[in-house]
Write a structure and sequence with these properties.
Helix content is 45%, strand content 9%. The chain contains 21 helices and seven strands. The chain has a seven-stranded mixed β-sheet with strand order 3-2-4-1-5-6-7. The radius of gyration is 23 Å and the shape is globular.
C-alpha cells in the first residue's frame, strides 16, 4: 500500500477516534465477575493481565528494577519490539463452531443448573461471522497501555522528542487487527504527550510480519499438510480429551456422541472470548473445571508446538528474515553508538504466528522432551506454555545498551519480564555482551537465508 494512502487512513481514523473500526463490545448478557478458574489456560486467547497480574490493579504499572545495567555509565541506545496484535474477535471459522454449540445447547441440553438456564434463556449468540478477527476495544487499549508502559520503562528511547524527530519506526502486518493495533500504540504515545499537530507514518511489511505465508517449504510441508499435526489429532482422540468431552456432555445432559472435540474447543473459546473481550466470567466457563482447562491448554500447545515451533525445523527457520532484520537494526545502532542513533526504536506489530517461530529460533521455552500426544502427564511442568508466551499483545523487546569503551550489552524482555538468551554461558547475566549474543547465534547469522531454507526442493549439490 502506498505511503500516501496510509497517511490518509491514519488521519481519517485519528479524526474519528477509531469509532469506525470497532463495534460496541458489550455482551448482551453476563455479569462482570471474578476471574474464571481456567483463565490461566486460555493459550493464545488469554489476556495479557494473566501473564502480568499486577496490571489488574494498575494497567500502567511498571517495574524499573528489572532494568539493572552493570554500571551507571550504561545508556539505552536502541530498542526493537516485536508485538502481537491486541485482543480480537473470534475468526469466522470459530464463530461457526460456537454457533453450532450454542444451537445444540439451546435445543438439546436437559440440565437444570442455573448457569445452563442462563445460557438458554438470557445469553444470546452475539458473535457474528463478519467480526472475523477484528480488533476489539480491549485490543485498542492493550496497545495504548503497552505504549505508555514501555515509554515509562525506557523514557530516553520512547520519548516525545524521538517520536517527533522520526527516530521511532512503526512496521505492521497488513491484517486489519495489526494495523489498528499499530494505530493504537501510536495513539497511546500521542495522547500521553498531548501531540495533536503531527501524524506519524507506519509501513506495512508482510515479508517481515507474515513471513509464514511466503515460505513455500513451510506452507507445503506443514501448513497444508494434514499429516503434519498427527500428534494433535491423536491427542484429540485420546483419553484426556475424551474425558473432557464426556464431562461437558454430563454437565449439559446430552449424549456423549454429540460433544465432539470441535464442540469442546468452541465451549472453551466462548469462555475465553467472553472474558478477554468483556471481562465477564461467563456461564460457558462452568462447562470446565481446572483439570479440563489444563487439558484444553495442552491441546492448544500441541498444535502450536507442531505447527509453529519445535515440531519441525522449518517452523522456526521460516522466521529467518525477521531474525536477520532484528540483528541488522541492532548492528546499525551498535555502529552508531557514541553518536545520534538514527533509528532509536522499532515497533513491529504482527501475529502469534510471527512471534512464536522467532522465539523458537532464538531457543526460548524449549523443553528437554518434545510435546506429544502420549506424554501429557509428564509435561505438566513444561516451559512451552503458550498461555504465558503468547497472550494478546505478547511482546519480545530487545534493548541495546552502550556502557562505554565499546562495551555493548543486550537485554531481552518477554512480556515485560527479563529473560535469558537460552544457551549463553552465563545464564544469570540479564544483559550479556552484545558480541557474546552474536557469537551464540553465529551459525544463524551466517546462514538462515530465507530464500534457501524456504525453497521446497533442494538442489542435489546442496544435499
Amino acid at each position: 500500500m502506498p505511503i500516501t494512502v496510509l497517511k490518509v487512513i491514519i488521519v481519517y481514523i485519528n479524526v474519528i477516534g477509531f469509532c469506525c473500526c470497532f463495534r460496541n463490545d458489550a455482551s448482551p448478557t453476563g455479569k462482570t465477575a471474578d476471574i474464571p478458574a481456567i483463565a490461566k489456560y486460555f493459550s493464545t486467547k488469554g489476556r495479557y493481565e494473566e501473564v502480568n497480574p499486577y496490571l489488574i490493579d494498575d494497567i500502567l504499572a511498571v517495574n524499573r528494577s528489572i532494568l539493572q545495567p552493570p554500571s551507571a555509565q550504561c545508556r539505552q541506545i536502541h530498542l526493537t519490539a516485536v508485538i502481537r496484535h491486541g485482543t480480537r474477535y473470534p475468526t469466522t471459522k470459530n464463530v461457526k463452531k460456537m454457533q453450532k454449540l450454542y444451537d445444540l445447547v439451546k435445543s438439546s441440553a436437559a440440565g437444570k443448573d442455573s448457569w445452563l438456564r442462563e445460557i438458554q434463556t438470557q445469553w444470546t449468540m452475539w458473535y457474528t461471522e463478519d467480526m472475523d478477527g477484528r480488533l476489539v476495544q480491549k485490543g485498542v487499549n492493550d496497545h495504548k497501555h503497552l505504549a505508555v508502559r514501555l515509554s515509562k520503562l525506557f523514557p530516553s528511547l520512547i520519548s516525545e522528542e524521538k517520536l517527533r524527530g522520526g527516530f521511532i519506526k512503526f512496521i505492521t502486518s497488513s491484517k486489519h487487527r495489526c494495523v489498528n493495533s499499530t494505530l493504537s500504540f501510536k495513539a497511546g504515545l500521542t495522547k500521553l504527550w498531548g501531540i495533536t499537530d503531527q501524524e506519524f507514518d507506519h509501513t506495512v511489511n508482510d515479508a517481515l510480519m507474515r513471513f509464514f505465508d511466503k515460505c513455500t517449504k513451510f506452507v507445503e510441508e506443514v501448513e497444508n499438510n494434514l499429516s503434519a499435526l498427527v500428534e494433535v489429532d491423536k491427542f484429540k482422540q485420546g483419553p484426556e480429551m475424551r474425558r473432557v468431552q464426556e464431562k461437558i456432555a454430563d454437565r449439559l445432559r446430552v449424549p456423549y456422541s454429540l460433544i465432539t472435540d470441535d464442540m469442546a474447543e468452541a465451549a472453551f473459546y466462548l469462555c475465553a472470548y467472553e472474558f478477554a473481550i468483556n471481562t465477564v466470567n461467563s456461564p460457558w466457563c462452568r462447562l470446565f473445571d481446572e483439570v479440563d482447562g489444563q487439558v484444553m491448554e495442552y491441546a492448544n500447545d500441541l498444535k502450536h508446538y507442531w505447527k509453529r515451533a519445535y515440531g519441525y525445523d522449518i517452523n522456526s527457520k521460516s522466521s529467518c528474515i525477521l531474525f536477520h532484520d532484528l540483528f541488522s537494526r541492532l548492528d546499525k545502532a551498535a555502529n552508531e553508538s557514541g553518536q545520534q542513533v538514527t533509528e532509536a526504536v522499532t515497533i513491529q506489530v504482527g501475529h502469534a504466528e510471527t512471534l512464536l517461530p522467532l522465539l523458537t529460533l532464538l531457543g526460548f521455552s524449549k523443553d528437554s522432551d518434545p510435546l506429544t500426544s502420549t506424554n501429557y502427564a509428564s509435561q505438566t511442568g513444561r516451559s512451552f506454555r503458550t498461555s504465558y508466551m503468547l497472550p494478546y499483545a505478547a511482546n519480545l523487546v530487545l534493548v541495546l545498551y552502550d556502557c562505554g569503551g565499546g562495551d555493548l550489552r543486550l537485554q531481552p524482555l518477554l512480556n515485560e519480564k527479563p529473560v535469558a538468551f537460552p544457551g549463553l554461558t552465563d545464564q544469570k547475566d540479564p544483559m550479556p555482551l552484545y558480541q557474546d549474543v552474536k557469537d551464540h547465534y553465529r551459525e544463524l547469522l551466517r546462514g538462515c537465508d530465507f530464500e534457501t531454507v524456504c525453497q521446497l526442493f533442494k538442489h542435489t549439490a546442496e544435499v
